[in-house]
Amino acid sequence: MILNLTFILRRTTLLLKVADFIIDLFFMPTKPREIYPNNIYHTYNRATEKRTIFYTEKDYDYFLDKVFYYQEKTKVKILAYSIMPNHWHFMLQEPKDLTRRVINHPAGEQSQISKFISMLSNSYTKYFNFTKDHSGRIFQGPFKSKLINSEGYFHTLIGYINLNPLKHKIVNNINDWPYTSHHDYFYKAQFKLIKEETLINFREYQEDLKIYLEDIKTIENEFDPLGRV
Predict the structure, then answer these.
(1) Which fold has domain 2-226?
(2) What does the H/E/C string look like for the chain?
(3) What is the pLDDT of residue 34?
C-alpha cells in the first residue's frame, strides 16, 4: 500500500511537470536572442528535408567523439543528449566564467553553446560530405534553442531527450539504442558524456523510469501536430 501511494505521488508530480513542459514548448520563444552564463538550454536540429545523416556506427562514433572534444574545448556542460538518424537533442549549460557578453548577433560575442554547436555541426558536415560523396549543407538551418526556466521543464525534458528513440519508434527497447544519455544515468554509457552532479539525480531518474516510459507517448502527441522534433 505504501509503495502504491509512493508511485501515485511520483506519477502526479511527473504529470504536473509534463503539463509545465508542454506549456513551455508552445509559449516559449524558439530562438532566444541571448544566451546567458550559467543558464540551461534545450538545443536541437535536424537534417535538411529530414534526411538520414547518421547511417553507420562509425558515423555516430565520429559525431560523439567530436561532442566530447568540443565540450572540453568550450567547457559547455552536457546534461542530456540523444542522437537520432536525422536529428539530435542536447540539454546544455552555458559556462558562467568564460564570456562576459554572450548576445547572439554580429555586434556581440558568441556564446560557448553557439561555438560548441557551430564547431560540431561544421566538423560533422565535412566528415559527411567526404565519406558520403555529398556536397553542401546537411542541417536544415541554425540550431534551435529554448531557455529552460522551470523545474518542470527541466525534469520532463531529461526523460524526453533520453527516451527520444522510443518517441520516434526507432527501437522498442531503449537499451537497444546506445546514442542517448539514458545509459549515462544508469552508469552503462559507452561514451560517458554526462557527469552526475547536484543538477541531475541519476537515482531519481532510475526510480521514475517506468513513469517516463508511460509519459513519452503523451508528450509525443503534443509534439506531432506542429511537426516539432
Answers:
(1) Alpha-Beta Plaits (3.30.70)
(2) CHHHHHHHHHHHHHHHHHHHHHHHHHHCCCCCCECCCCCEEEEEEEEHHHCCCCCCHHHHHHHHHHHHHHHHHHCCEEEEEEECCCEEEEEEECCCCCCCCCECCCCCCCCHHHHHHHHHHHHHHHHHHHHCCCCCCCECCCCEEEECCCHHHHHHHHHHHHCHHHHCCCCCCHHHCCCECHHHHCCCCCCCCCCCECCECHHHHHHCHHHHHHHHHHHHHHHHHHCCC
(3) 76
